[in-house]
Amino acid sequence: RLGGTRRPLIKRFTGALFHMDYYLLTDLAATMGYHLAMSGAETFRVEDTVHRILRAYGVECEVFAIPNSISVSLEAANGKPLMLMKRIDFHGNDLETMEKLNALSRRICTERPEVDEAMTWLHETLAACRTYRTGVIYLGGVLVGLGFCLVFGGTLLDCLWAGLMGLIIGLVTRFMDKQEANPFFSTLLAACCMALPAYIAAGLGLMDSPDAAIIGTLMMLVPGLPITNAMRDIIYGDTNSGIFRLVQVVFTALAIALGTAAAWHLTSGVYGVTGSATVTWQPLAQAVAVFVGCLGFCILFNVHGRGSVLCIIGGVVTWMLYLLGGALGCDVYVANLFASLFAAAYAEVMARVRKCPAMPYLVIAILPLLPGAGVYYTMSLGLEGNRMDAVAKGLETVGIAGSLAVGILLVSTVFRLIYRHVQGARAEKS
To answer: pTM for the complete prediction?
Structure first.
């Protein structure tokens, strides 16, 4: 009789316990995916991480992620459906957090701790992620301007101005972020405030090449991570996310063009339309400049330790291969394709050697190739009234972006096929 009265109570209690466990487990997986997305991870990584964590605990689920939200749905042991959704707000690029969370997901899938303990690990990991101090972040902007100004033909005087302009972008974007301003207007204002002193200084004869200084500094605003994520999302079949990110890239480029155009109009009485002489530096000097610029990007993207050194090496070698392609007589499209193939392969190899995401290595390595100069010259030619030249430069810019996309797509597809073949071979042996 006691057994007959206890069983229903135990059954109800166990069902409630299972429901609570499933909810906490789903919350753990969704929270992990949320923080990965907030750090700048691609859609495939977000969805795959949630899948792996839940499967490690014997739970099958459906995950749908786009750049501004993530949804997880599953069926609990008692047959009731469970769904959890988290909205992803505007966020920056935190590659340190992305790498730490990736390592944590591997640990959870291997050790399968209690859900409460796994959630504690997650909070401890987020608290332990390193961040650069505000002053160091501003220094990163200065280094980006200094380095890439020289790459695009600026003189040493122009590099000093570019460093100041990089500091201006850092101050403006940080202020706008505190105001929770729309990224489009934040980018537009940063581009305008950055270009104003360049045009004024050039009009007063205090700068040799304002174009080189502006282009080098604008590299801070070029959406390198969204471009890379869009390409990788399309590779893995996440077309919605890829298109979403591409639209974001287009609007960012438009904000950059509008901001610099506004600065040009505001200073037209001082600067006007004058020539902008550039200097062609030797490859060794450009290698040093790219090293400095990539170091600045490692700070802005919050990359630390040995990983930052490896990222910088990837960026320098990628640019040297681009210069080599030009020296061998390749046109700009082939040279960019050649260099992007190395950048993508380098990122995939580093990811497998260090067991971490390929994204940090790919983003830093590909940044020197991004067509920020094309966006600027398209705008400037249009302002000068050279519409045909502006259209030609715009098409060239699109072609360069296409070359980079093809290089990344080819390498990522090949590595993915190899990975699937290796996994299939291991499954057959087991």
So the answer is: 0.84
Cα separation values, 71 from 22, 27, 288, 315, Å: 15, 11, 45, 36
Phi, psi angles (nearest 5°) of residue 88: -105, 115
- For 210-260, the DSSP string reads HHHHHHHHHTTTS-HHHHHHHHHHHHTT-HHHHHHHHHHHHHHHHHHHHHH
Give residue-wise pLDDT tens across range 26-46.
899 999 999 999 988 888 889
CA distances from 280 to 150, 210, 259, 284, 289 (A): 9, 15, 27, 12, 13
> Which tokens sit at 360?
């940090």
Q: CA gyration radius for the chain? A: 25
DSSP states of 380-418: HHHHTT-HHHHHHHHHHHHHHHHHHHHHHHHHHHHHHHH
Decide which of 419 and 149 is more confident.
149
Measured from the Cβ of residue 385, the count of other Cβ atoms closer than 10 Å reads: 9
| Range list of β-strands (E), 2-47 | none
| DSSP three-state, residue 300 | helix
Query: Residue 209 in 3-state DSSP?
Result: coil
SS3 content of the chain, % helix, strand, coil (to 5): 75, 5, 20
